[in-house]
Specification:
The protein is mostly beta strands. The protein has strands spanning about 5, 10-15, 20-25, 30-40, 45-50, 55-60, 65-70, 75-80, 90-100, 110, 115-120. The model has no long low-confidence stretch (mean pLDDT about 95).
Length: about 120
């Protein structure tokens, strides 16, 4: 059974860094791109970063220059490197991995991770 496993969240002081991982567990799915979302306390879920299949990236204005989304084909995973963390970055981060079935027919698939908590403190 294929699913995405998220890891890397935790408690960090403002100004610190965390690296979130979103790895494919199980076989049959090749991740090609992803969206990272976050939901802060009392807030709606927002799209934070996107990695498209062609390798292009986009970010919400509030994280530009601080966050980097990337993919590791060998690990079949995507990452979100978060630097210079701020209090307002606190929330649960969700990965929506997009790709295709590894074997024929190579139809498009997407999966959600379980979420990982990021807490930024003073």
């Amino acid at each position: 059974q294929v699913h995405l496993e998220e890891s890397g969240g935790g408690l960090v002081e403002a100004g610190g860094s965390l690296r979130l991982s979103c790895a494919v567990a199980g076989s049959g799915f090749t991740i090609l791109g992803a969206d990272w979302y976050r939901q802060g306390p009392g807030k709606q879920r927002e799209l934070v970063a996107t990695l498209s299949r062609d390798g292009s990236t986009t970010y919400v204005d509030s994280v530009k220059g601080r966050f980097t989304i990337s993919r590791d084909n060998a690990q079949n995973a995507v990452y979100l490197q978060m630097n210079s963390l701020k209090l307002e970055d606190t929330g649960i981060y969700y990965c929506n991995g997009k790709g295709m079935r590894s074997t024929w027919p190579h139809r498009d698939l997407d999966y959600w991770g379980q979420g990982t908590q990021v807490t930024v403190s003073l």
